[in-house]
Amino acid sequence: MPKLCYRYAFVLCGLIVMSWTTLVAETRVLGNARASVALTRFVQAVVDSNYRVQAARAGLEASSAFRDAASRPLYNPELSLDAENAQARIRTLSISQTLDWGGKRKARTAVAELDRLVAEAEYLDARWTVAVDLLNGLVQYQTGVARDRLAQMRQQLMEEFATLAQRQFEAGELDQVALDQALLSLTEVRIQKAMVAADLAEARQAVYSLGPRIPEAQWPSLPEKLPEVIEQSADSQALVQALPGVVAARHRVNAADAVVGLQRRERRPDPTLSFTGGYEDGKRLIGLGLSIPFPIRNRFTHEVTAAMAERVQAQQLADDAVQMAHASLISAAERYGLSRFAWDEWEHTGRKSLDRQSEQLRRLWQAGDLSTADYLAQLEQTIQVRESALDLHGQVWQAWFEWILAAGQVEAWLGLASR
What we know:
Layout: H1 2-17, H2 21-25, E1 28-29, H3 37-49, H4 51-70, E2 78-85, E3 89-98, H5 104-170, H6 176-208, E4 230-231, H7 236-241, H8 244-266, E5 272-280, E6 283-291, H9 301-366, H10 372-406, H11 410-414
Antiparallel strand pairs: 1-4, 2-3, 3-5, 5-6
Helix pairs in contact: 1-9, 3-5, 4-5, 5-6, 5-8, 5-10, 8-9, 9-10
């Protein structure tokens, strides 16, 4: 058992210090790795019914309506009727129309359309985020199920061990100290099993919280084979630039530019033309009027200054979004490569060695070649290694989900359709 531990520690230490330059130097895109049909349908159903996604969808619909509203004319014609009975009887009918002299309608439509594009990107980002949250929840749930089974097996082994220890104690082959150690270990195992069951319940609720309460028996399993990340010659910047968060940030910059233009156009006064027709003491009366507001008391310059400052702010946030997205892509690739390498090492060497070690420990203790204390310590160590392997398997899947989110491959891997 110590040799196995030293080997396992050596592998982990090597993973920490080894270089993964070749892993992150080129962009990874999906090869033939895809999710199962059952998993795709499950994620699709949950994502479509998720409240965050529905809220983002409503925001997108609202932005489309605002865009349509902005494309309509700014001013409606005005109709007025005047009647006066003084020294002369005057009856007039006037119609006036304010003209969009500065092109405000076009500028507002441009701003509204860019806001709609931002909402569209945010809607897609919400779908992807909820999908990955659900996948991570499934990983935690399935890891919890496996840990619960391991805890059940551990409890069964310790119950059998405690029963055997009691028999040996009654036969005089075991002292009181060794028997107490066995009973205390059984109590500790039962406490640990209760804690594992609580973690499993929490993981179960994490999945339920994201969508409809689909029966647990209908939850799909993750693919047995871990996906590979295929190296391609594509530039990683292309993946980063296509991410919804980056796209939204870029549209916000364009929208800020459009707002600057709109504020400049808002400074231009719009004239109002009017046409009046009527009668004065029976004589026909015709008039034509023009009114133009004078921007004297307020020239509306501060609005332009504020819009320019907000444009700078949007550009800085967009640059930060690109930088953070690129860092997340590299980090996710490194994490997946490291955890996948460790899992392959466990599959090739660790699992078989641990199975043989567990059986040998039991035979040595029954033969009297191993003390009770040593047997309990090494048995606990073997179970802890199994738990570490379960946690590692879950971490590999979570690293993969982190990568497909950072690379914008969520829908590609799941085969989801945007709605």
